[in-house]
Amino acid sequence: MLRKRGSLILCGTFLFITWNAILVLLLWGRPPPGQPGEPGRDKGEVAEGPTNDVVADVLRMADTFEAELERQKNILLQIQNHQSVWDPSNRDKPKVDGPRQPVIPILVIACNRVTVRRCLDKLLQHRPSAELHPIIVSQDCGHAETAEVIRSYGNQVTHLKQPDLSDIAVRPQHKKFQGYYKISRHYRWALNQVFKTLSHTSVVIVEDDLEVAPDFFEYFRALLPLLKSDPNLWCISAWNDNGRDGLGQFYDKYLRYIKLNTKFVPFTKLDLSYLKEETYRKLFEKEVYSAPVVTYEVVKQGQLKGTGPFRLQYSTKDSFKVLAKNLGIMDDLKSGVPRTGYRGVVSFISRGKRVYLAPPPGWTQYDTSWS
Q1: Where would you find the membrane-spanning parts of this chain (predicted)?
Q2: Could you tell me the pLDDT band of residue 342, with boundaries at 50, 70 and 90?
Q3: Sign of CA pseudo-dihedral 182, 183, 186, 187
Q4: Which residues pair with residue 38 across a beta bridge?
């Protein structure tokens, strides 16, 4: 096969050189332009006849020859551009002009946990494509042992180091939140690296103490179009602080018993159109406010009758915080928005049954003084 291809190349080269040699002879023997009988000249046009200046004649001939070579060069370029069409190996292949798959990088936020290895191992284990899901590890704190663990992955990950490790000046009453200020600074720097320096248009953030399930990448690929299409949607989350039955804030009591999901859900094959805001809001409100109202005592004592869901109502900031705290769910508010809340409703599981901690019917907006 290689010998045959080499022979064709030599043959083509020989024909090309021969053709140009013939052209030179023809051009050399062609009568000068403007002689009687030459088409394209008006009688009144001054013709450029032969001269006794050999140098001028040679230069004129060289110009003509150069113009002809340029024309043939353009022809060859056109042939090369259409070569894939003539290639026998491409004739039977169907033409595919499908959209390019989006690149969704994974940003791992790390600090001083050498156990980041568990997080990275799971990401690499389940990652379907290195090109579509590059892994970027942004490290704060300057912890040498953690940095060494990250470096051990070589070119499988991109290791970034947050350069500003200084303390942040905060108000005296916020001194206990110094760590949160530093985390906020790290997030801002890392996201700027992803979006501005590396020019990505989306990102999935994973903290260094998380392990991902087999359908982690599938989930975010399926929901990216929803995020892009809805200007009111700021992010897609795979985390729910109240997602486990009776989940509170205590690791030893709850988190240590959580089992990582091993079942793959083909999210990209599912019809997720019900998640569009207008459709979802109507379905959600109908389910919440058609659910029977129950009391705190009934929920707490496990006396819910039926399969659910059920509605537990609050009306003030204080009533929300008391109910949430006593039920073991997150009770914090930011500008009136409860953690994990949607339209004021916090969903949780109690003894295997869905309960909605909800404001009264007719809710329209958050009270920003609730903080």
Answers
A1: 7-28
A2: very high
A3: negative
A4: none
Distance of CA 167 to the CA centre of its chain: 33
CB atoms near residue 123 (< 10 Å):
23
User: Rounded to an integer, what distance in angstroms lies between the CA atom of residue 324 and that of residue 318?
Assistant: 10
Closest CA to 242 of 104, 123, 340: 340
Q: Are 238 and 216 in contact (CB under 8 A)?
A: yes
Give the full edge-to-edge strand order of the sheet including 106-110.
158-161, 135-139, 106-110, 204-207
* Burial degree of 340 (CB within 10 A; 0-12, 13-18, 19+): middle
- The CA distance from 33 to 29, in Å, is 12
> What is the secondary structure of 135-178 as a DSSP string?
EEEEE-TT-HHHHHHHHTTGGGSEEEE----------GGGGGGH
| pLDDT given at position 128 | 97
Asked if pLDDT for residue 46 goes beyond 80, the answer is no
Sign, CA dihedral 193-197-203-204, equals: negative
Helices (H), 152-269: 178-192, 216-229
Query: Average pLDDT, stretch 20-44?
Result: 52
* Per-residue confidence (pLDDT) for residue 39, from 0 to 100: 45
175-217 pLDDT, tens digit per residue, is: 988 999 999 999 999 999 999 999 999 999 999 999 999 999 9
Q: Which domains does the chain have, with CATH numbers?
A: 106-275 (3.90.550.10), 282-358 (3.10.180.20)
| Single pTM value for the model | 0.68
Cα 149 from Cα 157, distance rounded (Å): 11
Check residue 43 and give its pLDDT.
42
- Dist. CA 201–CA 104, nearest whole Å: 8
Spatial CA neighbour of 370 closest among 314, 320, 313: 320
Rounded-to-integer distance, Cα 299 and Cα 323, Å: 11
Q: Beta strand 135-139 with 106-110: parallel, antiparallel or unpaired?
A: parallel
| Least reliable range by pLDDT among 77-86, 122-131, 251-260 | 77-86
Q: How far is CA 292 from CA 93, 288, 305, 351, 358, in A?
A: 60, 9, 10, 17, 12
- Please list the helix, strand and coil fractions of the chain in percent, rounded to the nearest 5, in that order: 45, 10, 45
